[in-house]
């Protein structure tokens, strides 16, 4: 009897050890498998944007502070549309509006990055068209820019057909190109007034623009579902990708900004923007209070707040 009992205990102990080992090993194996799959995916579809793309680098080489105002205006609209074009020309194209049966529909990180991209494109186009593309506040908008921003870029980002979002955005881009061509021929207006630099910077860091993604990042953890954490992070990344392109070119064309606002402010602002543009954790976590887990949304918020404060310092310096 005692022998049978010992045998049962031995079997129980063996199974207990096996189950514990399986439990200990299953998470590293699962994470390791996920890491391999994710790295394979990133090899064909970019998820980190640590440098400017070749097309934008070429634009920087083709322009300078000595370029004509018309060439500067055309370059700035190119910078506004650059990120949107890069997203539509990427490996899986514009995936926000893919059908539910398509595997790309489930790539929600890139989808939310694209949502942030079109949001920031709309916002910069609104300012450019209503402030920089005319001589005075009461002047009429350029017809190409007005149609692009009110009709095509304002179109919903998730329409698959009749018409598709891609088609609408491509029409908007074509209208920008027509404005750029007219500008270089002297048939359109680009007019950067002395107060426009300050107004542009304060517009970017204002409640309607950068504060919109910031609000998504600083909302209390208890009010945000776990499945929404990564959505808000990558949406912010899309917004900053557009702003980074535009401000990089803007500072390049108008180096007086560095002299008035301080090179340190500009350097740190771009450094923090690069942190956002390269932010791509394997798994997005939300650490509560003094938890040992990372709070990725909070970290992204800190980067964005630093960007906002540096741009604000830059704007205030210009105003003085």
Short descriptors:
single chain, 320 residues, mainly alpha
In short:
The chain has helices spanning 2-44, 54-62, 69-88, 108-132, 143-152, 165-184, 196-204, 211-218, 229-253, 256-261, 263-277, 296-319.
What is the general shape?
Answer: globular
Report how far the terminal alpha carbons are from each other.
Answer: 94 Å
Q: How many beta-strand segments?
A: 0
**Overall domain count:** 2
Tally of individual helices = 12
DSSP helix fraction:
55-70%
Helix and strand sequence: HHHHHHHHHHHH
Largest sheet: none
Q: Which value, in Å, is the CA radius of gyration? A: 25 Å
Uncertain runs are: none
Structural class: mainly alpha
Rounded mean pLDDT is 91
Explain this structure.
The protein folds into 2 domains: 1-44; 53-319, no CATH class. 67% of the residues lie in helices and 0% in strands. The protein has 12 helices and no strands. The longest helix has 43 residues, at 2-44. The termini are far apart.
